[in-house]
Amino acid sequence: MTTSQTGPISTRYDILLDYLASQQQRHPGFIQHPNPHVNRMAMAQLDSLRKAAVLIPVTRNSATQESHVVLTVRSANLKSHAGQISLPGGTWEARDADAVSTALRESEEEIGLRRDAVEIIGQLGEMALPSGFRVTPVIGLIEPGLQFTPCPVEVADIFQAPLELVLNPEAYRRSEILFNEQPRQILELLFEDYRIWGATANILHHLAEAVTRHATMPD
Q1: Residues in a beta bridge with 128
Q2: What residues have CB less than 8 Å from 180, skipping those under 6 apart?
């Protein structure tokens, strides 16, 4: 197993930090959909997709508090993906310098997370969505115990799922839904009364598998 400066790594939080540090000079690959047909369809229109970014806010680990990932429940009044679990984020705008700027701006607008309260530690490859977007997930560390202010137009609720759960690939399950009268495979992660699925589950599962592979690499 990979080791840190303070000794053997024992938590997925430590492995996450070590993995992202090892990826800084590498070009990340695309995040794949669990449904091959959806993946081919989305990738075929890649050049026409609008750029977007989401933030994966990870609370710092400590001796008394385990790390969590901050997630939102989208407002029931939204035109798309109403009521679903999401990561804070949104569409790139001309004022944004890059994906990090988009993720930080949108997170501040959606949940009141100040950009100066986030330490960016890495980002994943893009994921092409049939809905018309190519999304870049950005990962940032935040202090535990921060108070969030949801934008009532976009966010119905904010909650935190344990990082140990989110980064455990075995916690995810595959199921099927009907979309346009066709069966479509999806990934989903259950936490308390929350059902995380769709693009959010794809992103988090991709990260979980990458971190798990990194943990088994020889020194």
Answers
A1: 134
A2: none
How far are the Cα atoms of 1, 17, 20, 50, 201 from residue 7, in angstroms, in the given order? 11, 14, 18, 43, 31
Q: What does the alpha-carbon distance between residue 202 and residue 207 come to, in Å, rounded to a whole number? A: 9
128: number of Cβ within 10 Å: 23
pLDDT at residue 102, as a whole number? 98
| Structure-token match 């870049």, residue found | 136
pTM: 0.90
Rounded-to-integer distance, Cα 65 and Cα 175, Å: 33
For residue 106 the two structure tokens come to 């949108």
Cα angle 189, 76, 137; round to 5: 45
Domain 3-169+199-211 has CATH 3.40.640.10: no
43-101 residue pLDDT tens: 888 889 999 999 999 999 988 889 999 999 988 665 555 568 999 999 999 999 999 99
- In angstroms, the Cα distances linking 122 to 45, 67, 125, 176 are 26, 17, 10, 32
